[in-house]
Amino acid sequence: MPHTNEVTLVSNQGWDQRILVCRNGKMVDTFIIVTQRYVVLVDTIINPATARQMLAYARPHLSDGRQLLVINTHADYDHAWGNQLFVGPAAEYPAPVIGTRSCAELLRSPEGAAYVQEMQQKEPAIFGGVVLTPPTILFDEQLTIDGGDLTLELLATPGHTVDHLAIYMPEIKTLLAADAAELPFPMARTVEGLPAMRESLAKLAALDAETVLYCHAPVTIGPGLIFENIRYYDTLEERCRAALANGAQAKPGADVDVAVLINYPFDEAVAVGEHGDFIGEHHRNSWHSHVIRMMLEWVA
C-alpha cells in the first residue's frame, strides 16, 4: 500500500461531534477527542509530518485551558511513528504520550530499530526523519482519563499485538477499537496471540457500544463488525478442528490450499457486502491462509 504524508478530516457521519476522524490516505484512520479538560490525539500516524497535520486539526480546540494529551493504541508504524513531535528535546509541542508498558518496550526494542532502518531505506521521503519515541505515561491493564464531560477508559486489548489498547467513552457509549477489530478481520501476529485476540474481541463486544470507530474499517460500519470478527474466528476454529479430526496436518506444506483443506473459502468466511473496497487481494490470498495455518497449529 503506498504511503502518503497527506492527512484529511473525515466528515462527521453521525458520531459525537467531540470526536474528529483523521485519515492518512488508504492506510489508517486516527482520532482526536475534544473534552472539557483535554484535546486527545489517538495515535500519531506514520511520521512527524502526519502527526503535525493531526496537531493542526487539533490546535483550534486547544483553548479554554485544554491541555494536549497523546495516546498510542499500539507501537505499529502507522500508529506511533509520529511520537517525536511531542516527546524529547526536539519536540515541537511537548505533551504526555500514554501507552501500555509493552508499547514502550516495543518502541525501544532492537527489532523496532531495525524495522525503522528498513523502512527508511525503502522510502526515505516518508520515513527518513522518524525517530522511534516511546510513550511517557505507561500502564498495564486499564487507565482512566477524566476529561470533565467525557471519561476515556483505556483498556488493554492484546492479540493483534501484545501492546494493544482500545478506548471506551461510557457517557456516549462510543468505542475506538483501533486494530483490535477491523475489516475483514484482525490478525494476530503469533499463534499465541490468537486466544488473546479473541478474548479482546469478547471484551469489546461486552461493552455494548452504540458507536464503534475503527482504524481499518469504514466509519459507517458500526458495532456489528466486532461480532462478525468473532463469528469468523469461531467458525475458523470449528472448521480446523473438523479438518484435524479427519486427518489434516497441523502444519500443512506450503503448497497446500488450506482454505480448501478446512472447507472455509474466503467468500464464505467474509461477508464483504457494500464494503468491498476495503477488502484487498492480500486479505483473500495471504491473510486468510495465514490465520488458518495459525489456527490449525493452535488447535492441534
- Percent of residues in beta strands: 15-25%
* Uncertain spans: none
CATH architecture of the largest domain: 4-Layer Sandwich
CATH superfamily annotation of the largest domain: Ribonuclease Z/Hydroxyacylglutathione hydrolase-like
Mean pLDDT: 95
* SSE arrangement, N to C: EEEEHEHEHHHEEEEEHEHHHH
Can you list the strand order of the major beta sheet? 1-2-3-4-5-6-7
What do you see in this structure?
- The structure is a single chain.
- The protein is an alpha/beta fold.
- It has 2 domains: 8-223, Metallo-beta-lactamase, Chain A, CATH 3.60.15.10; 232-299, no CATH class.
- Helices cover 34% and strands 19% of the residues.
- The protein contains 10 helices and 12 strands.
- It has helices at residues 48-58, 77-80, 101-108, 110-122, 124-127, 193-206, 224-245, 258-261, 266-269, 281-299, and strands spanning 8-10, 19-24, 28-34, 38-42, 67-71, 97-100, 137-139, 142-146, 151-156, 165-169, 174-178, 211-214.
- Strands 1-2-3-4-5-6-7 form a 7-stranded mixed beta sheet.
- Strand 4, helix 1 (48-58) and strand 5 (67-71) form a beta-alpha-beta unit.
- It is globular.
- The two termini are 34 Å apart.
- The mean pLDDT is 95.
